[in-house]
Predict the structure.
Amino acid sequence: MKIGIVCPYDWEVPGGVREHISGLAEALLELGHDVSVIAPADDDADLPDYVVPAGRAVPVPYNGSVARLAFGFLSAGRVRRWLKDGDFDVLHVHEPAAPSLSLLACWVADGPIVATLHAAMPRSRALHAAQPILASALEKISGRIAVAEAARATLVEHLGGDAVLIPNGVHVSRYEKAEPLPGFPGSGGTLGFLGRMDEQRKGLDILLAAFSMMADERPGLRLLLAGASGDAEDVLAKVPARFRDRVVILGRVSDEDRIRMLHSVDVFCAPNTGGESFGYVLVEAMAAGAPIVASDLEAFRQVLGGGEAGELFPIGDAAALAAAAGRLLDDPAHRASLAAAASAAVREFDWSVVARDVLRVYQAVAPATGRVAVSL
Amino acid sequence: MTPMTSIIVIAVVACAGVYISWRAGRLDRLHARLEAARFALDAALIRRSSVALELASSGLLDPATSVLLAEAAHDARSAETAREMPESDLTRALRAVFSQPDFMTLLAGREGAEELLSELESASHQVFLARKFYNDAVSATLAARRRWLAVIFRLAGRAAMPEFFEIDDSLAPAGDSGPGADLPHLTS
């Protein structure tokens, strides 16, 4: 199949949507399909072979922050040329309501169009202002995919219609083998956390409280934290002074160190208190074969197969987290069996499986509407 | 007390009374000017966001630009408190839209484009002027209210302390700081 994929956000800035698109594109290429991705990027940027640059992204206020987007007639002209050259069987746009390339592609194309919605859009009033403009472009989409329940709910509420739920994928094989960070996990046990430290709903405070409860009884126990940290001092201030030298804050890490970090812990903790539509961080930990203790959130319970691939504890309960993590630290056999169950369960989220689900959506819309044509 | 000293005391008290009430009247006039400037600024901001919204829904622009403008204009108009942020965002969105290469040439000749663009330019210029005059009135009023006489006799009554309105309202592309760069130039 000849597949054209549109990325609305700057290719040179890492982000969830871009990660998703590169994962999907590479999986589709491996399955033997012909894939081209168009994304905002400088013409002389260092890009993978399958990415076509649509010109530099412009920083502009959008949705309460500054986004890097591509818009305007010139960008539309680039998309039109890419569509003509590509002669695609199916066009797959991501985040079509964002004022960028995806919306422009819907505007200039005709034929089989599939759209994936990533983020939930809570600001329904703002969307109303732009609704008439969006409607005519979004009407052309013949198959819609949501990566999470929250994104699907937004779609149903604001734009009408329904969507197929296909979660984010992960390259399981990239996570399976990695060298632990130097000195880890160590003999005294290591608890791990991955996520934004200054975001309340990621629940780091609960883990810090649980660690403080366990640290006296387990003098070798350490805490390994990765993710954007804001101010590391603020994090340390929440731990009694005598334990602070046992808390290691890595801050923001590279993709490679992220995987090494997951291999450096005895127990991976996900103390999130809510707002997770899909437990991507858990899927990563499962792929790395880390034993997991996670909050009993709906999304987490689903990913962990109801608790078979990881322990669940009541949301926000630091004492319960401490107890569950302690039990796992004392029982290597149980840790190994959880890790094995996680490695088996995570197969379902591998890109090779997820990409096949996406292909089924392509096949459902493609024959009915012919090839992708340029309408204007 | 001799009759002479009582006359002098009465005269001094009377003069002081006249002076204080003159100062109070002046402060009152300043507050009236401030209020008028505030109304003018409100009207200019509302006009600017309305024209931006009209341009967004005119069908003259591509849909991505339209959505950007519509959202920025909507946010600016619906903000009740803390208006500085959304109004500055609207300016930045307009600047991003108008600084696209060949933007004016691509729109030239389209029906209604010229009228809307010149209306938007005049509305943006009006915001620039109205804000300048409003902030002038604020600083004059603040200076008058800080004088010891106004403070001791509470000449301003219960009127709230006025606040400056600080937004980014320059439409010259960032980095252009030549003469007149603080003036809005959409079309030049």
Remarks:
- The radius of gyration of chain B is 24 Å.
- Chain B touches chain A through 27 residues (CB under 8 Å).
- Residues 19 and 165 of chain B are 32 Å apart (CA to CA).
- The first helix of chain B runs from residue 3 to 56.
